[in-house]
Amino acid sequence: MLIRIRKNWEIPEREATPQDIFYSRRSILKNLGYSGALLTSSIIPHYGMKSGVANASYREGTKFYPVPRNSKYKIDRPITPEEIATKYNNYYEFGSHKKIWPLAQKLTVHPWQILINGLVEKEKLLDVDDLIRMMPLEERLYRHRCVERWSIAIPYSGFPLRNLLDYAAPLGSAKYLIMESFMNLDLALGQRQFWYPWPYLEGLAIDEAAHDLAFIATGYYGKPIPKQNGAPLRLAVPWKYGFKHIKAITKFTFSAERPISFWESIAGNEYGFWANVAGAVPHARWSQSTEEFLGPNGKEIRTTKLYNGYAEFVSGLYRGRESESLFK
Ligand code: MTE
Known about the structure:
Bound molecules: ligand MTE
Distance between the termini: 30 Å
Number of strands: 13
CATH topology: Sulfite Oxidase, Chain A, domain 2
Number of helices: 10
Structural class: alpha+beta
Helix content: 10-25%
CATH architecture: Alpha-Beta Complex
């Protein structure tokens, strides 16, 4: 087989974190207004998928694609075959293995509502297609490096996250952008694993979110992004490890406080907030010096590049932040 399923990198939170810390982290999240895993689907707020509305077909999203490629974003390797990028995935809502793509088809992604709230001039609730219609769509070739060491190179379609920031109009006091995925215990059986701090949550510092490379992907290989890859919209921040690339975003919250992201709350010593790629900084359980690129010629071992090859563009973001753990 082309792809070897690697040793699982997640550990149950109850093993990773003493129970008192586990529960106090959960209460911090709740105090910040995030719904937790112990909530039942009946009391989940109505953004994300609209309950009771039939799933419109995949064709629904095709009206937007393909879009022109922006040649400014170059990659140093061939594009990963679509068959690999769409059939070898991480999406814990549907299971902790790589073959979740058939299970992810259960997700209803049209219509899909997005809430923009927190430290903004005015809270907004809108449908993803209305958001896409407002945004300047383009295609970009990006490298993607998972913390597990596998990597791919993919054509995303979508829009710069900065344009969403402009639309959201955050207040000056907003220092972080928090993104939250959907919650649905009926469709995503992985969410019944109550020891995970659902919903999946990630965050960026505001200056990272405003960076030219931070992208919201709504398309993949010139078509609407498949469900298993994060439909209807996901984050792409190619200088960071893959777990920052939150899929199926339902909520953008602007905050003065740094959030504790999903994996960070499970094992903060292994998965930090910044999570920038660096071969010289090993993961707690394995080396990051090389990666396994999944390309058209099978698996190739390549040397990991600082910031996944984007150092010249992003290293300036971290001046003044050197005292923090920037590379895990
Ligand atoms: N987003 C959600 N909601 N749930 C997840 O489990 N996994 C992350 C990220 N986004 C994840 C997620 C991880 S660990 C990786 S490496 C990438 O998605 C994988 O993206 P891909 O499957 O599209 O290649």
